[in-house]
Amino acid sequence: MTTLDDLPLRDELRGMTPYGAPQLDVAVRLNTNENSYPVPDAAVAEMEKSLSAVLRDLNRYPDRDAVALRTDLATYLGHGLTWKDVWAANGSNEIQQQLLQTFAGPGRTALGFTPSYSMHPLLAAGTGTAWVDGRRGEDFELTAEHAVAKVREHRPDLVFLCSPNNPTGTALPLDVVEAVAEAAEGMVIVDEAYAEFARKGTVFALSLLQRYPRLVVTRTMSKAFALAGGRVGYLAANAAVVDAVQLVRLPYHLSAMTQAVARAALAHTDALLSTVDAVKEQRDRIVATLRGWGLPVADSDANFVLFGAPRGDSKGVWQALLDRGVLIRDVGLAGWLRVTAGTPEETSAFLNALEELL
Ligand code: PMP
After folding, report:
1. Fewest Cβ atoms closer than 10 Å to its Cβ: which of 10, 123, 165, 333?
2. Burial class (CB in 10 A: 0-12, 13-18, 19+), 56
3. Is residue 262 very low, low, confident or very high in pLDDT (cuts 50, 70, 90)?
4. Where N6-(pyridoxal phosphate)lysine occurs along the chain (predicted)?
């Protein structure tokens, strides 16, 4: 049988495993930070109408620049942004890959602070970018002093920040983003995939874009907009950054169907975002309940919670929950597990199963 070892694989890809959480058919799936609520009927109806309008025209390529979608996204974000400051692609993963292709790549370096979103180093590897891990502190915190010291030490071409951070759930204070933007000579990417779930008072980096032309915020419709299957992510930055990304994007990368579905979803922003409050309520319920049981729990501004497994047995507890029909995520942090906040019923199923294991 032919294996990868028999193929002339790029050296830096040897021994790597592809990213991916198990996609198992269990009753309660709380492992990939999806929105548990289905797309509301009114939005589905509008998507169907928009799709039937584009299907007949599929003989033609889609709008390569996705101007209408980018205009809708800019309106959603506010902060005086226009479509020229916004770029969209197939998930924020593709956006981040394009940013690495544009501003990093062979001979260049990207810096991140783990534990953080595990796709960042994988995207770096895939684009031939050297990866430097600046690490977070004992309690997963990232201070401005530590982040700036790492930026000065490694002088990376691109820095990844993640706020709220996956898998810890906690947002970064804005002064950390600002300090990194001041210190960095290269691009600074703030991955804000979970921004809409933040607790009151949390501030995000959109307000900094005017001041820092090398700062980029990436967002997604996969989480708050319940559109993970639609594959739409986007960035907001100085218009010159958007121009630069055009040098690497594939022509017509975003299908006419994707653009139509995303625009229909954005036309129903209020209905879609109404699920966010329901999810936050369950997120807060998980945090309070687990803390009540004496388990360590990270503060969460996201739709998921990182918690210390009973007896520190993350592997055993993960399996025991799965045996009880509840799939959560072992993010590879010894002693810790991550659970997505779902519907009240899913959350109850998780809490009841975990309580049995205390
Ligand atoms: N950033 C973070 C921090 C994430 O957790 C995820 C999804 N797991 C993404 C980006 C990618 O999301 P998408 O490609 O669906 O936009």
Report:
1. 10
2. exposed
3. very high
4. 223
What is the structure's pLDDT at 310? 97
Residue nearest atom 2 of ligand 1, based on CA coordinates = 193
User: What is the CATH code for 41-268?
Assistant: 3.40.640.10
> Does ligand 1 come within 6 angstroms of the Cβ of 178?
no
Question: Tens digit of pLDDT for each residue in 91-102?
Answer: 999 999 999 999
Q: Which amino acid is at 97?
A: Q
- Enter the tokens of residue 239: 């218009």
- pLDDT band, residue 15 (cuts 50/70/90): confident
* Beta carbon of 301 within 6 Å of any ligand 1 atom: no
- Domains of the chain: which residue ranges? 4-39+270-356, 41-268
DSSP 3-state of 72: helix
Report the predicted TM-score, pTM, of the whole model to 2 decimal places: 0.97
The C-alpha angle 207, 112, 145, rounded to 5 degrees, equals 70
The gap between the terminal CA atoms of the chain, to the nearest Å, is 46
Q: How far does residue 168's CA lie from ligand 1's centre (Å)?
A: 14
Residues 132/109, Cβ–Cβ less than 8 Å: yes
- What ligand 1 atom has the least distance to the C-alpha of 94? 14
Judge if the beta carbon of residue 163 lies within 6 A of ligand 1. no
ipTM metric: 0.99
Q: Indicate whether residue 162 lines ligand 1 (CB < 6 A).
A: yes
220 lines ligand 1 (CB under 6 A): yes
Nearest CA to ligand 1 atom 5: 166
CA distances from residue 184 to 121, 128, 130, 151, 157 in whole angstroms, order as listed: 19, 21, 17, 6, 8
At 309-347, the pLDDT tens digits run 999 999 999 999 999 999 999 999 999 999 999 999 999
Structure tokens at 7: 């193929």
13-192-302 Cα angle (round to 5): 105
Rounded (10°) angle between helices 91-103 and 119-126: 50
Pairwise CA distance, residues 164 & 304, whole Å: 10
